[in-house]
Amino acid sequence: MIEEFIRDALRWTDVSIFAYFVALNSSYLVLIVLAGLEFYRHLRRIPFAGADDMFRSPLTLPVSVIVPAYNEGPGIVAAVQAMTALRYPRYEIVVVDDGSSDDTFEQLRARFDLVEVPRVVPADVAYTSEVLSVHVARANPETLTVVRKTNGGKADALNVGINLARHPLICMVDADSVLDPDALLSVAKPFGDDPLRVAACGGVVRIANGCKVIGGRVVDVRMPKQWLVRIQVVEYLRAFLMGRTGWSRLGGLVVISGAFGVFRRDLVVRVGGMDEDTIGEDAELVVRLHHHLRETKEDYRVIFVAEPVSWSEAPSSLAVLGRQRRRWHRGIAEILSKHRRMILNPRYGRIGLVALPYYVVFELLAPFVELSALVLLPLGLWVDAVNLEFAWRFVLVAYGYGLLVSLAALFIEEVSFHRYPRWGDLARGMTAAILENFGYRQILAVWQVKGAFGAWHGRKAVWGTMDRTGFDTPDEPESDLVGAGSVHRRG
Amino acid sequence: MLELFTLAIEVLTAVVVLTAAGIVVVRLYRRFKHRKQARLAAGPRRSLLAFVADNGEEGSHDLVAIPEDAWRAAEPHALALLGKLRGEAHMGLVSVFLRRGTARTALGQLRSHSRVKRARAAQVLGDLELRQAVPELCRLLTDRHAEVRVVAVRALGRIGDPAAAWRIIASLDRSDPIPSLLASHTLVQLGAEAEVTLSAALDHPQARVRAVCLDALGLLGATASVTRIARILKEDAHLDVRVAAANALGKLGTRSAIDPLSLALHSSRPAALRAASAKALGDIGAPSAVPVLEKLLDDGAFHVAHEAAHALRRIGPAGLAALTGRGSNGHALEALALAQVMREEKTAVPA
Questions:
Q1: What are phi and psi of A487, to 5 degrees?
Q2: Which Gene3D superfamilies does this one have (chain B) (predicted)?
Q3: Domain boundaries, chain A
Q4: A340, B19, B25, B207: which could join A407 in a potential S-S bond, CB 3.0 to 4.6 Å?
């Protein structure tokens, strides 16, 4: 009797897990279709987007680019160089060195001839660390500022940067990011087009590993050499480019990556800056903005632009990837816990009723369901709750649907931006979409579950470090550089 | 149940294979199309460059005679070139576009049902700087789609006909107005002839309109409007408008603006206004404002003290002397250090 009950329970659990996978992948597919529609809309409007007018206008809103840096020695100079070459009429760069123990600051001092200056740091938003010194570039004292402070975490570094920012828009950029020349212009443009409503705008982050970077600019887009990173390229396309564009179209965007996002400074100050107690401070800020602006009944928009992009170095080892994904999932768990009163609360509109519940069901819980399936399906087989015929079909449909979603993302990418021009890279992308299902997704689920437990058990969060190799491509023969000049770009 | 799964696997396999094949087909199609376009555009592009190199004097007939499909392939390049050219070459290329009927087509498309077509047409007419299109573009300022209105305003700015000023100002007075900064920039592009209209609009009941006109007057250097702007700085009911007035006076840089700006520094005024007025006095660079700015260095509002210190720095020797006298003040030290860095950089750069 008990055995029969267990068998029934296992059978229905397996069927429920299957239904969950179908719903999860269907939701991804819907977001990808929405993203496709958005890209079509975007591409049709490029001829009259007015980027050149914005660049030439003396009234374009100036931007403070804030770059928190912690042990970023290998790549910091290339990243800042790229930022100084951005196509934007008026902006400043504020690098906040958060107590690095490597040569981050020395690299900057040597390259940009930094000179120490006294500076009064306003307390518009709270920060807990101590500002040790402020430096400016001798050649461009009003364009590049470098702050040295005691270690306090990324959110604290951003808060110091927000305080020092002089312009009405702030752009948060990771120190390992390389921005396309027009990236800032594109992400700040919505603020000029709809200044009364746009509160924040996120930009796309793509993976720079394998790309040729010269002088702080990605000049040739290639697939990375390691399969681990190639899989992440597909994952970034599906989840970040397509997923966030889809949510933006639905008016439910709750995540803007800390690697590249622009915010109205006055609003960020009004909500108190970055939350130092949350490890996913970038997404938390967006949710808090939604929270505040919905409560004050303001008409606002949080949007996402798909192009141009910020390029970032992705983890190339399992250890670093594991740390990153634990941190990300912990961030989701913390944010959803902190803002739980918004969930299913009609007061917060589609954020409360659609976006956050989706994040609970299909983001936070997904790794738990995935791991449950990995345990319960073999268990069901063992106790004869399900037969082998059912099991292999179950696995094939669940993972096959996942593969279809990834291929759909690659298809939309090919139709719209086609950033990977080589046939070999296309084949590698499609292969990575298949390989993702064999081990990668499963180990990811383990890390994510650990991350969520870390949040729920209140363990101390730390700013994750990554062993960076830096971007600057070593000197290459002239012919290679000439080849780099013929980079494939969308016409 | 098993049959259902089997069917799902078959359908999934088919869709996965079709999607993968679709990716390959899309890439092949794009490459084919790209090559064809490049081949078609090659000749016209050479003719365009030769035409521009001759300053638009020779070769216009060749450009007009280019077959339609080849011209379509080269048109984005030609339009981009149009934005970079000035003088004779620009007029010559515009004349080619007109003879090819581009303007006529664009004027017709301004009434298209598709908002994308309307916006594209407005963009083309702006690129061509076609004055005859101004009435039609002004009509688009009331288009039901914001993106079309925005493109129409930009086109009007490029054409630069001051007759459009009042229509642009009127388009600000609606529930879903064109962006203020875009309107200001466009009004500036209309040139000095628009000053009279802008000055008259300073009495407009809508605060947004007054602020936009103030920004534009400041950038236009409309010194004849200083008295009216000073009155707004003193009397307007909206803080944003008064701040815009202070900014405009700073840009105009006339002596007569110093007194009203100094009065706006009084502690009873809002901090945002005092900070903007201090900055404006720095922009003017008036040594007579040094005493009043020096007093603000101890102001409790960060931005007021900060702007006052940097205004003193920009004023020059008199302001720097005042800052040096306040050696222990953080804002003064900050401004002095920046002045020092800038001075060193100037002396380091050979003349």
A1: -60, 140
A2: Leucine-rich Repeat Variant (1.25.10.10)
A3: 21-61+168-363
A4: B19
Give A-chain residues touching B5 at CB under 8 angstroms: 390, 393-394, 397
Nearest CA in chain A to B307: A166
> May I ask the CATH class of domain A21-61+168-363?
alpha beta
Contacts of A47 in chain B (CB under 8 A): 76, 120, 123
A59, A139, A411: residue with CB nearest B22: A411
Residues A63/A88, Cβ–Cβ less than 8 Å: yes
Answer yes or no: is B226 within a domain. Answer: no
Helix B2-53 vs helix A423-435: angle between axes, to the nearest 10 degrees? 150
pTM of the model: 0.89
**C-beta atoms of A57 and B302 within 8 A:** no
H-state helical runs in chain B: 2-53, 60-65, 68-84, 87-99, 102-109, 115-128, 134-140, 146-159, 165-172, 180-189, 195-200, 207-220, 226-235, 239-252, 258-263, 271-284, 290-295, 302-315, 317-325, 330-348
How far is the alpha carbon of B294 from chain A, nearest alpha carbon, in Å? 17
Full residue range of the structural domain in which residue B116 is found: 79-159
Instruction: Give the DSSP letter of residue A138.
Output: S
Give the CATH number, domain containing residue B100: 1.25.10.10
In 3D, which of B175, B163, B174, B228 has the Cα closest to residue B201? B228
Measured between CB atoms, does A83 come within 8 Å of chain B?
A: no
Q: How many domains does chain B have?
A: 1
pLDDT in tens, chain A (491 residues): 787 888 888 888 888 998 999 999 999 999 999 999 999 999 999 889 888 889 989 899 999 999 999 998 887 888 898 898 899 999 999 999 999 999 999 999 999 999 999 999 998 999 999 999 999 999 989 899 999 999 999 999 999 999 999 999 999 999 888 888 999 999 999 998 888 789 999 999 999 999 998 877 888 999 999 999 999 999 999 998 899 999 999 999 999 988 899 999 999 999 999 998 888 899 999 999 999 999 999 999 999 998 778 898 899 999 999 999 999 999 999 999 999 999 999 999 999 999 999 999 999 999 999 999 999 888 888 888 888 888 888 889 989 999 999 999 999 999 999 999 999 999 999 999 999 999 999 999 999 999 999 998 876 665 555 555 555 555 443 333 222 222 223 32
Distance from CA of B331 to the nearest CA of A (A): 6
